[in-house]
Design brief:
The protein has 481 residues and is α+β, with helices and mostly antiparallel strands. It folds into four domains: 3-139 and 361-437, no CATH class; 157-244, no CATH class; 272-358; 450-481. Helix content is 61%, strand content 12%. It contains 14 helices and five strands. The protein has a five-stranded antiparallel beta sheet with strand order 1-2-3-4-5, with no helix packed on it. A hairpin with a 5-residue loop joins strand 1 and strand 2. Helix 3 runs antiparallel to helix 6, helix 4 packs antiparallel against helix 11 and helix 11 packs antiparallel against helix 13 (429-446). It is extended. The N and C termini lie far apart (77 Å). It is found in: Cell membrane. It comes from Flavihumibacter stibioxidans.
Length: 481
Amino acid sequence: MKKLDKLILKAFIGPFIATFFITLFVLVLQFFWLYIDDFVGKGLDLGTIGQAIVYVGATVVPLALPLAVLLSSIMTFGNLGETFELVAIKSAGIPLLRFMRPILVVAILLSGVAFLFNNYILPVSNLKLGRLKYDIINKKPAFDLREGSFYTNIPGYAIKVGKKEDDDSTLREIIIFEKDYNLQDNIIIANKGVMKVSDDKRFLEFKLIDGWRYTERGSRMNMNTEFIRLGFKEFKKVFDLSSLQLGKTEDSLFKDNYQMLSVRQLTVTIDSLERIHDNFRKKLTTELGPYVAFTRQIDSLDIAVGKTARPDSMNDIIPDSVFSQTNERVLSQLSIIKSTLEINKSEFEARSKSLRFHKIAWHEKFTMSVACLVLFFIGAPLGSIIRKGGLGTPLVFAVIFFVVFFLLNNFGKKFVKEDVMPAGWGMWLATYILVPIGVFLIYKAMHDSQLFNKEFYYRAFRRIRPMLERLRKNRGEAQPQ
């Protein structure tokens, strides 16, 4: 390895690691910002939150890697240009592509690592995150009684307290509605009570003092019911809190989702869906064949009746005595045909949508890997052109090009989902557009272009300014007095 390669790599590794973890942190925060309403108030322990952070971090790595490569490459070559090291390297006769080579090798390796990550680790992370997110979203809020409002998250009960003491356990003016689907609800009213949650968080115990319990016995079918009012000095009521706990859903519930599959599994699934897709016409022909058998007799009808003697309407063929009966049978057959077509249409659209989504997932494992290489071809020449280091100007350009990449990638994915473009075009839309831009920037960087130098545009404007003034003067003289 040449000293130049070591210099370039040393200047690249530091910014890359820093920008990668910063980008990862921002993307993880974005996820929790989107799902903040589903996480707050659930009483989640630190272990569950830690698992969610790890799984979310793994799922956003494919997006963080290209952005880190883009920003760090701009910063690396921008720092070298700002300190005139690029000038020294070029004055030694070393072309741009030569001192881009060490980072190019790193970008290729990162693309390979990104593909392996997308193919083997990302499906597992999506599976675990999908299961955990499902459990958290379906978990009811943690137990929290509030003064003057009903708490209804315990199935079958509605609890209201008038006042809570400072110890947060002693309650006043307690009302408990117990749902009874046979007759009216049972009611417990107490002037005072002490609330306690069991150590295993599975049960809630109410020690009620000085109150009444109202119950009605009987059935809706019998008008003779029995109303019972029971007074008590002390009454113990236990509630089951198992419905509030975080459940553990099996991974098998999500394992067949297209986001949870590797390239090999996606290929097998796509082949299976395409075979079903191709056989759909045969299936439809078989189902509709008995109802459109008359189409095979059209030629025979022409020969028997004669093309010149073709009847004007069905009344000329079908006698009046059986016309009504025949019309009903025709309408019945048409109704069956319409129903069959609608059912098959829904099935066809569902299978087509599933096929498109699987193709999106298959192509995305490659496009997000190649994105590291594509954005490097933009970032490296861009940094050598702007010749600015730090996080100011490089961050602005990095954000602009990454937003362009992100929007093009999402537009292409949307086009494929809506069946506007095939997957081979839609999922590679960002690559097809950004590669020519990268080639253009490399060409400009190799020829020491001043594409982003404001002094260049200022000097160009100064040269054409006299021409504009003469043109404006001539136009004023040409106007009639």
